[in-house]
Amino acid sequence: MAVSRMILILLAVILFVILAFLPLSVQRHFLWISVIFMIGTFLPFVIRFERRKAAGRELVLLAVLGAIAAVSRVPFAPLPSVQPTTFVVIVTGLAFGPESGFVVGALAALVSNMFLGQGPWTPWQMYAWGMIGLTAGLMRRTRLMKNTVGRCAYGFVVGILFGWGMNLMYVVSVMNHITWPQIVAYYSASFPFDLAHGLSNVFFLALFAKSWIKVLQRFQKKYGLLEQ
Prior knowledge:
Elements: H1 2-21, H2 23-28, H3 30-48, H4 56-71, H5 85-96, H6 98-116, H7 121-138, H8 148-173, H9 180-223
Helix pairs in contact: 1-3, 1-7, 3-6, 3-7, 4-5, 4-6, 5-6, 5-7, 5-9, 6-7, 7-8, 8-9
């Protein structure tokens, strides 16, 4: 377990370095990088179950959750930054742990962009949602995540940080041609959308998180899925 999480954190660091310091390569080869990214996210998951073969139904469960997270984004596309995807990713991390949260977050971005459009933003979205699921999983046993207020606070903060991370994609791509006032203006312009994302996370987590976590943990106990 400890080994898989160390590898997961190391993978997250490596992916961030690639995104932040090789922006031109990401822009030119975003599809290949997205596919490699997706394969890499399963590595810690496989290592986690190194002592036994991960049952097909466990992989199917993650695929279904990833599909739900992806498809739930599509109907809300006309409402900028308002979608249940982040909610599903957070709940997955809380119910099944950081490895599962990371996989579902990355998968949700890749699959949903098959409908909404792939581009250089896809690896960044995969990373951002993956980190949201990873962090939720790492914090799942803390007091913060055991109550509705704490979960909503986490959802609000990561909604803001998600937007800041996506802004970073633009900043690093024009690093040599941008000034600090321009960076501040760019982040300020995106704040209403980031705020909408954070508030929508609060809405979905406040209404549905408790019941979703209960259902997922019931499946986990009944069928022995993704046990810690």
